[in-house]
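Why does residue order matter? Because the sequence determines the fold. Keep that principle in mind as you read this record.
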Amino acid sequence: MMNNVTPESSRIDQILNWLYGRINYEHQINVAPRSFKLQNMRELLRLLGNPHEDYAIVHVAGTKGKGSVTSMVGNILSYSGQQTGIYTSPHLESIHQRMVIGNRPISDHQLADVLEMIRPIVEELDRESRQSGRRKVTFFEITTAAALLHFSRQKCDSAVLEVGLGGRLDSTNVCQPAVCVITSISIDHTRQLGSTVEKIAFEKAGIIKPGVPIVSGVRDLAAAEVIRNVAADQDAKLLAVDDAFHWEESDSGFRCHGNLFDADIGKFDLENLKLQMIGSHQKNNAAITVATCQVLSSLGWSLSDSDIRRGLWSTKLPGRTEVVNGNPTFVLDVAHNVASVKVLVKSLKNELKGWGEYSPKILICAFSREKNIGGMLQQLIPHFDLVIITKYQSNPRGVDAKEAFELACAVVSEDADVIYGQKKEQANDRCRILIEETPADALDLALAESGQSFICITGSVFLVAELRQPVLNLAKSSP
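Structure:
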């Protein structure tokens, strides 16, 4: 029998085992706000030689849309001729997807190199933490440092950094950006960020730096007011959606127009913009991106309208209203709060070709703790003939399928006639609701349904991560 283990594969496996053994808040159910501090991150980067100071940075926060805007801006900068790093989180199938330069994820060799440079410094900081009572360096801090170091080692001209959680105390908030972006604000991660949009807005506005321009796509009035006040306190010029810039549909795509910080100068108007991704929310993300690029141009960055058009059109993100054509047709979306689920439903109804003809329409969903699961199910259930509730297996934050089932029953009928058998089932004249213990079983059940079906997979990034590759494999084998 051949042994496929090579020294290089053994090397990456060993260093990733070390990394995944670190404190990882992405895999924890209850994370207190006091867990987030920037002291370790600053010290780690200092000992690495402050690699994040070697290139210009665009810093992107927001409840929804920050991953899309990060990728759009990064692609545009790449088309302009810059060597541009893109840092996003979390990943779907591989940690390599978090660190991308010019559409090339970091390689095993490159990732092992940067992590091996970081490891002895982390272990020294760990020893110091035992003496001082500080917590150890976390998975996300190490991953962020790895990305920043990788971009420096690859001689990047620029990098676009997506905030992991919140903004003010996020590990990425050690940078001095050329421009800051806040895409949107809605209720999410309430334990860490607060239970009101004002509190959440304050945390996200923590990325605003003195004198650094800020582009805002925030439409919630109370949240927008917080952004405006923080920007004023920081003497940061604010470019806000529906005030300084706008977008609207057109016969040949969509249009984005507005002006920079002086209404008499810096006007911009780009027509016939096009995206491959569906949904008006992606056009809104594109408008935020266009406004960000206009600010960068005003700072002397060389970005043409052609660069912007090509960068927008080329952006495709796994798991963001991702359409996988075949029989059945799939849509995978990482929506995980009420606001993002509303956007998903609107996109399916208004922009998915053939939506009205699909029968049955099937939903596979799983959820994370501390989310408004009932609110998400209220938005989803009326649009599907069959709902299959499951629990993702890759992360302990998953909600038990039976718990989510009870919430779904309450949505269908307050007097639900629940059948207990091999499968727990709730049915009415609109929708059947079933439980499957694993995502793989849920997919098998959905595929067993007859008809020209449509299957939507949503509710959590972790569910989409577990089912995306099987779905892509099915599409490849579809006649």
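Residues 31-35, 414-424 have pLDDT under 50 and may be disordered.
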